[in-house]
Amino acid sequence: MTEAKLNRKPYRATGTKTPREWIEFVELRVSASGITKIWSVVDRSNGSPLGQISWFGRWRRYSFMPNASTVWEQDCLRCIAEFIEKKTREHKNTQGPEPAGEVAEG
Q1: pTM recorded for the entire structure
Q2: What is the average pLDDT value for the chain, to the nearest integer?
């Protein structure tokens, strides 16, 4: 399938040069709850799925679950971390304040 057909919109992290040339984030679907989203982390050179980003309820944030036997270096991990932080912020900004008794992590 072409990028146009999948409606891929690669996320580009700020302040670094080229790791985004190697990976991209493709929105797969909305979660079963209908509240959060799920993305695939994809190898741009061949379209292979490398892992998935989804909401991890106990941590109240998006998290990255890499596929088995994948190897990561710091630039790609930094790109993934920036994407996760951005999407967690966006989600929390649309959900209102934290429930009483819970402290938001900074």
Answers
A1: 0.71
A2: 81
Is residue 91's pLDDT more than 60? Answer: yes
User: How many distinct structural domains can be found in the chain?
Assistant: 1
CA triple 81-83-85, angle to 5 deg: 70
- Domain-embedded: residue 105: no
Residue 102 lies in a domain: no
Residue 106 lies in a domain: no
Rounded CA gap, 102 and 86, in Å?
Answer: 21
Of the candidates 63, 62, 61, 60, the one whose C-alpha atom is nearest the C-alpha of residue 102 is: 60
Sheet holding 49-56, edge to edge: 23-30, 37-43, 49-56, 61-66
Q: Is residue 75 part of a domain?
A: yes
